[in-house]
Amino acid sequence: MNAPSTGGDQTTRAPAQPKRRRALWLALVVLAPLVLAGCQIPNFGAYHGATSQGKDAFKLWQGFVITGIVVGIIVVVLILWAVFRYRRRSDDIPRQTQYHTLVEIIYTVLPIITVLVLFAFTVVTENEVDATPKGQVQVKVTAFQWGWQFYYPQTGKVVEGETVQSPQMVVPVSETVNITLVSADVVHGFYVPAFNFSRYAQPGVVNHFNFNVARAGVYRGQCTQLCGLYHSLMFFSVKAVSPAQFESWVHQTGGISPSIGRLKAQIAAHGPGA
Predict the structure, then answer these.
(1) Same domain, yes or no, for 144 and 56?
(2) Beta-bridge partner residues of 221
(3) How confident is the model over 129-147, as pLDDT tens digits?
(4) Residues 108 and 189 grouped into a single domain
(5) Is the separation of the CB atoms in 195 and 48 below 8 Å?
(6) Fewer beta carbons within 10 angstroms: which end of the chain, N or C?
């Protein structure tokens, strides 16, 4: 009497399993977008970007990291699925198959599409970052052992500092700032972490790039290329202020520092950018 009863229970329970699975997947599909929509995408260790160019670079960084995570999860899931689904069950040789056209097409085409999409976003972002439309403010940045000079050709304002003096470049917020970067001696690295931006200052080479600082503040900068004995002390900062404050600052009385003559002689001796 017990056997038929048990069999009957199994018969009534069996159809319920697929229904439960379908309900679970349906709930997952419906709830996943809602949960993800309420989440903030992490910065993955990068700065959000204090400039419009830096924000573009930050978004590209997020896209690359998220893509890498997704690809990594897919790979791990496939490995675990293969390990448990096709684990050894006996000493018998399993059925051998030679081709699986659909799977081969998928694992060939999807990586190519992924790379092409990432490449396209990279090109667009690089074009945005490297674009140099004419701005309201021009600053010539000269790197030298071991300091920085910031020259404003529109007004003749000069700010310069060596080693521990850490000179400060002042720029207006929400305005395009054209930067001309040169080196007076060896290769230096112009790097502002909060801007997500770095560019070499090389002898004989003139680099041009723009900044559009989004919010007021003081942002640290440093040389990132080993350039000699006091490389580790070659700091500077960028101070972003309102346009009115910038106009007031740039027209304040300020002479050329005592070492500017030596610096100009070095620049003239090394060609372009003098």
Answers:
(1) no
(2) 236
(3) 888 888 888 999 999 988 9
(4) no
(5) no
(6) N
Q: What is the pLDDT of residue 26?
A: 59
Pair 211, 177: CB distance under 8 Å: yes
Give the DSSP H or E segment for 79: helix 52-85
In eight-state DSSP terms, residue 26 is H
**CA 263/CA 142 separation, integer angstroms:** 9
* CA dihedral of residues 80, 82, 85, 87 (deg, nearest 10): -100
Q: What DSSP state is assigned to residue 123?
A: H
Tens of pLDDT, residues 165-221: 788 899 999 888 999 999 988 999 999 999 988 899 999 899 999 888 988 889 999
Provide the residue range defining the domain that includes 45.
16-130
Q: In the block, which residue shows the tokens 């900068």?
A: 221
Secondary structure (3-state) at 230: coil
The closest alpha carbon to 49, from 200, 193, 263, belongs to 193
Q: Are residues 30 and 79 in the same domain?
A: yes
Q: State the pTM of this model.
A: 0.68
Q: H/E element holding 3?
A: helix 2-13
- Same domain assignment for residues 76 and 195: no
Cα 257 to Cα 117: distance, rounded to the nearest angstrom: 50
